[in-house]
Amino acid sequence: MKIKLKHFLWLFLLFVQIAAAQESISGKVTDKKGLPIPGVNIIVKGKNVSAQTDFDGIFKIAAKKGEILVVSYVSYDTVEVPAANNIKIELIEVQNELEAVVVVGYGTQSKRNLTDNIARVTAKDIQQIPVSNVQNALVGKLAGVQITQTNGKVDGGINIRVRGAASISAGTQPLYVLDGIPLINDDESSNGAPTNPLLTLSTNEIESIDVLKDASSAAIYGARGANGVVLITTKKGREGKGTFTVNLSQGVSEATHKRKWLNAKQYVELLQEAGRNVNDLESVEDELEYLSQGTDWRNGAVDTDWQDIALRTGYTTDADFSASGGDEKTKYFFSGAYNNTTGIVDSNTLERFTARTNVSHKVTDRLTLGMNLGFSRSLIHRVQDDNSFSSPLQSVAQAPISPARLEDGSANPNTEYSNYLLAKDNTFWKTIMRRLTGKAFAEFRILNSLKFNSDFSYDLLSQTEDYWQGKNAPFMATDGAVFASSVNTENYVSSNYFTYDQTFAEKHTFNVVAGMEFNKYHRRYQDVNSIYFSSDDFQTVDGGAEVNEGHGNETDYAFVSQFGRLNYSYMNKYLLKASIRRDGSSRFGKNERFGVFPAFSAGWVISQEEFLKNSNVLTNLKVKGSWGKLGNAEIGNFASRQLYRPNPYNLKSGLTFDQPGNDDLTWEKSAQTDFGIEVGFLNRFTLEADYYQKDTDGLLFEVPLPISSGAASINKNIGKIRSNGFEVTLNTKNIDTENFKWNTSFNITTNESKVKSLPNDNRDIIVSYNINRVGENISSFYLVEYAGVDPDNGDALFYKNTKKADGTLDRTKTRNYSEAQRIIAGNPFPTLMSGLTNTILYKGFDFTFTFQGEWGASIYNSAGIYQSTAADYFDNQTADQLNRWQKPGDITDVPQARFGGGNGTQDSSRYLDKADFVRLRNLTLGYTLPKDVLKDLGMSSLRIYFTAVNLLTFTNYEGNDPEARRDDTGIGEDFYSAPPARTTAIGVNFNF
């Protein structure tokens, strides 16, 4: 008994000793303002023991009192403190770009340890810029990202190319992810011009936007990452005193540029001369008599500026608020915004409401629950597409001698072409987009280093369109008509994944993410058309006597995915990353339904080596490289299926074979390589340079089939393209004192996107003015080359460009257009892009401006054959046609005016122009009142500001604007396209 009791006492003392040795220390980590910092790493110095703070900044770690805790977090100085129970640790934020935290798929990572290429903007970079869409606020700020609004309509579509094109026939837009929700970005327009579904977002709710550009960063999104991934993160509440912010602004807009057109006197003189030159003056003057509607056209009684009517002064009103705060248990963020934009294009307006609620609650020390919920409603009054006679900008083709309105104020119906004012007075096209985004999430911390996240996300985009045409609408033959459509698109995603973070021996840091995801998409569409209305007072479907047409369809797709990612760092200087995603999609053939998308990257932080670690000059030096495979799944939901379509006849049902199936059809695959270097000097200058190459294989094409097969073509994966170039970003702190700070950010990008192979033995693919040819830029312009004017007789000339026996081109000039061969004449995409942003702070003043430039692209004005033809017909002409050839010896590039003579009016490089430009994209000047002035008002700050967008443009482009493109079809074309708006606004920002 004594021996057993002795052993028991010995074991009890040993247990007490071990328990004492494994004493648990708890504490809280906050910033200088007392706000908790989640995710902070705490290590017991000299031991393999670590922990992380939870969402409320609280941690527990197995340590004894007096042991040294090493506390570190990105963007903050690392500190060492002795362990003590209930210890409070304050971290000081460092103003160091390397410590910035960027958002990556399913997590975050510090810029210092990043081996990917990710471009980022934060709320301060885009807030208070008076644009109606989020994407336009990013222009010029991101290397390798080209952002272009189709034209100056408020609802104009947006084209974004990340590091050039990754496809020819499939989708080219990036994947947008809002707080983990893949956003619906379908263009549901029925009027021929695209809408921008991301109009439904407001900048006031956005915390940051991170663009994943290379394969290493985007591969975690697998089959949908080939065109880049745009991660949008909304604002969250933080523990501490509640804050309330209000922002109000009012802006005025006008067109960036207007073309010069002939006035009435010039128009008449040119038409008369053109008629005399072909001995047809009498018929010309008869038409002028008709167009003038009985007014004295010979003496300029009417001189209508149709462009001035079509383009008006626009107005923009913005109002938004946000409230945020919380305690150690619950955090909240609420926001609301209102935008009312009267566009510069007549009859084109936008009214938008948005609201957001983000809430999180800590249920226990280990479990956190939350929900993000956003809603928006956008009402757009639209005009027809650029290729419609009732579009305002096509009115520039009208004769200036034609009155726009009659004496009674009604629109003149007797113009050369349909008077768009008839559409303005007797039609409307109303589009309403309603969007609901929601995310419910749970985070359970299993261990200090291991957590599990479960997210359920939902995106609903509902759009209705109502197109009413009254009895007096253009081309109306049924006493009125109404078209109404409705489409509901929903996308839900279930994501479940584990995250493991741990540091061993103070040297080896691991971050592992593994999980799975299910994505389901569903779309339901229906429309109906009604005709024969008794009165224009009835403007809905049920007012018509006959419902003569209707359509409806449903479609869906699904993705199921598994993904994993490993980040490893050794002593914060040797960096490795590997990721893999396996995607299965219902869109592809049953034999190729699943694909695997791996990626690898590595980095070496040379500045952490002993020979540079203490350098005060070279403060950062890192080399990195990555490789990975991505996919493009934007090919339609049923491209691989054998399809039949209904084909009723005489009220009898029937089916028609519509599309052959291809069980081997799969996504386009893109292999991407990136090499880069990051350099920092004196903690004031940072330089990042990258070379990238993007090879896309298995391009989707419709391959022709024999007639005997019963189908014209079949979808196959054939073809290759390559995009490559350089990106350089330079950030400098020019002046950094207490009262005066001046920072500069400069980026420059080169890009070439060329075709490497095509189907049918590399046969050229020609569509309208564009060609895809092996070895040439994607969608190059393919045109007959204009050779100017014969000075002897005023004939238009063209280069033959036929191939001679030795393989060279015959550069002989000819007046016979049919003798000339088409050549590759230009590139619709820029090969060089640049952005320059300066931010200057002086005491209470702040001044920021961004210049943006593009070079190497051309625009083809496909309306030139009507508007720049030296009076070939009755269209009004651009002012440069006054330089026409008139007598032998005249040297000019404008042929002799010949009414109906077709003198140089054919499609050719005559209407191709360089689109190089430099633009002052945005400028903001603000003043923040001193705090002692505000203390009696209960405000923490009050700022008054002036801001402008597209303030100045430097270009030799002769059209409306070097960024305006036609919105109905075509690549790189201008066709009566509206220029973007130049907007100036004043505003005030209150903070409580």
From TrEMBL:
This protein's UniProt keywords: Cell outer membrane, Membrane, Signal, TonB box, Transmembrane, Transmembrane beta strand, Transport
InterPro entries found in the cross-reference section: Beta-barrel_TonB, Beta-barrel_TonB_sf, CarboxyPept-like_regulatory, Plug_dom, Plug_dom_sf, TonB-dep_OMP_SusC/RagA, TonB-dep_OMP_SusC/RagA_CS, TonB-dep_rcpt-like
Listed name of the protein: TonB-linked outer membrane protein, SusC/RagA family
N-terminal signal peptide: 1-21
TonB-dependent receptor-like beta-barrel domain boundaries: 433-752
Taxonomic lineage from the root: Bacteria, Pseudomonadati, Bacteroidota, Flavobacteriia, Flavobacteriales
Localisation: Cell outer membrane
Gene3D superfamilies: Carboxypeptidase-like, regulatory domain, TonB-dependent receptor, beta-barrel domain, TonB-dependent receptor, plug domain
Bilayer disposition of the protein: Multi-pass membrane protein
One Gene Ontology CC term in the entry: cell outer membrane
Coiled coil: none
Family as reported in the entry's similarity comment: Belongs to the TonB-dependent receptor family.
Location of the TonB-dependent receptor plug domain: 111-229
Pfam families, per database record: CarbopepD_reg_2, Plug, TonB_dep_Rec_b-barrel
Major localisation: membrane
